[in-house]
UniProtKB/TrEMBL annotation:
<feature type="transmembrane region" description="Helical">
    <location>
        <begin position="57"/>
        <end position="83"/>
    </location>
</feature>
<dbReference type="InterPro" id="IPR013099">
    <property type="entry name" value="K_chnl_dom"/>
</dbReference>
<keyword id="KW-0812">Transmembrane</keyword>
<dbReference type="Pfam" id="PF07885">
    <property type="entry name" value="Ion_trans_2"/>
</dbReference>
<feature type="transmembrane region" description="Helical">
    <location>
        <begin position="132"/>
        <end position="153"/>
    </location>
</feature>
<keyword id="KW-0472">Membrane</keyword>
<protein>
    <recommendedName>
        <fullName>Potassium channel domain-containing protein</fullName>
    </recommendedName>
</protein>
<feature type="domain" description="Potassium channel">
    <location>
        <begin position="84"/>
        <end position="152"/>
    </location>
</feature>
<keyword id="KW-1133">Transmembrane helix</keyword>
C-alpha cells in the first residue's frame, strides 16, 4: 500500500513535468494546464464591464497562476512520495520537534525544503532509494525556476514584435497610401516587409500561444485593431500594374490567410474567412476592426 501511495505522488509530479514540457519546449507549445487557466481567466475577464483594465491583467496573472500551480503540484506530489515512509525511513536531527508533528506535515515540509534547494538537514532520508529521490526533487525545483525565467524572457519579445507590427500598420492607416503610391518599387518593399512581420507574428502565436491572452493597450499598439488594414494594403498591391508589387501583394495576402488560420484554429473557432476571423479577433480583444 505504501508503494501505491508513493507511485501516485510520482505520477502527479510526472504529469506536472509533462505539462511544463508541452508549455515551454514542445514544438506546438500546447500545454494543457496553462491553456486551460489562461482561457478560463480570459473568458472571465471578458464578462467584466471594465474590460480594458481587467483584461490587461489576464496574461501576467495567468502566467503567475500557472507557475504557482506547477510549484504546488510538484511539492504535493513529492510530499505524497515521502508520506507513507515518514518517519521510519528518515533521520531527524537531535532536539528537532519535527518527529512529533504529523507525518503529512513533515512530508510537505521536507518537500518544500528540497524543491527550494535549501537543504536544511533537520530531516534526512535513510533508505537508499529516498537518498536518490530527494536530490532529484531539488533538480526539478531548479528546472522549474529556470523554466519560469525563460518563459518570461521568451514571451515579452514576442509581444514586442506583435506591437511593432500593430504600430506600423496604424501609422500606414493614418497616412493611407493610395493604390498609385503603392504601385512602385518602394511599395513592393513595403508589402514584402509587412508580409515578413506577419509571418513572424504567426509563428509567435504558434510557439507562444499564451501571448494571445496579453492585452496590447492603446489602439495603435493593438494588432487586433489594425491587422485588417494589412488586408486592404494587400488588395491594393494585387491590383497594381507592376508585377513585383502584385507579387508582394499576393505574398502578404497569403501570410494574412495563414495568420487567420492559426488564430481561428487555436483561439476563435469561427470557421470563417480571413476577414471574418480578423473581425472576431478584434471583437475578442474589445476593439473595432481597421477600416477597409
Amino acid at each position: 500500500m505504501k508503494w501505491l501511495v508513493s507511485l501516485a505522488g510520482a505520477g502527479l509530479v510526472v504529469l506536472t513535468l509533462r505539462d511544463l514540457f508541452h508549455t515551454l519546449w514542445h514544438p506546438t507549445r500546447h500545454g494543457g494546464l496553462s491553456r486551460l487557466v489562461m482561457t478560463a481567466l480570459w473568458r472571465l475577464a471578458r464578462r467584466f464591464r471594465a474590460q480594458r483594465r481587467v483584461v490587461g491583467l489576464v496574461g501576467p496573472l495567468a502566467m503567475v497562476t500557472v507557475v504557482g500551480m506547477w510549484a504546488l503540484t510538484v511539492v504535493l506530489g513529492w510530499a505524497v512520495v515521502y508520506w507513507p515512509h515518514m518517519p521510519g525511513a528518515f533521520t531527524f536531527s537531535p532536539g528537532s520537534q519535527a518527529a512529533q508533528e504529523p507525518a503529512l506535515l513533515d512530508s510537505v515540509y521536507l518537500s518544500l525544503v528540497m524543491v527550494a534547494t535549501l537543504g536544511l538537514g533537520d530531516i534526512t532520508p535513510d533508505e537508499g532509494w529516498l537518498r536518490l529521490v530527494s536530490p532529484l526533487e531539488a533538480l526539478v525545483g531548479f528546472t522549474l525556476l529556470t523554466a519560469t525565467v525563460s518563459w518570461v524572457l521568451e514571451i515579452y519579445p514576442a509581444l514586442t514584435r506583435r506591437r511593432v507590427l500593430a504600430v506600423r500598420l496604424a501609422l500606414l492607416r493614418d497616412s493611407d497610401p493610395t493604390p498609385r503610391q503603392i504601385d512602385c518599387t518602394a511599395g513592393a518593399l513595403l508589402l514584402d516587409g509587412l508580409a515578413t512581420e506577419v509571418v513572424r507574428v504567426r509563428i509567435d502565436f504558434t510557439q507562444y500561444a499564451e501571448a494571445y491572452y496579453f492585452h496590447d493597450g492603446e489602439d495603435h499598439s493593438s494588432l487586433a485593431a489594425t491587422v485588417g488594414y494589412a488586408a486592404t494594403l494587400a488588395r491594393r498591391g494585387q491590383a497594381a500594374r507592376r508585377p513585383e508589387v502584385r507579387l508582394a501583394g499576393d505574398v502578404l495576402t497569403g501570410a494574412l490567410k495563414d495568420l487567420a488560420a492559426v488564430l481561428d484554429q487555436r483561439f476563435l473557432h469561427t470557421g470563417g474567412t480571413a476577414t471574418e476571423v480578423f473581425a472576431a479577433y478584434a471583437a475578442d480583444h474589445g476593439r473595432s476592426p481597421a477600416r477597409s
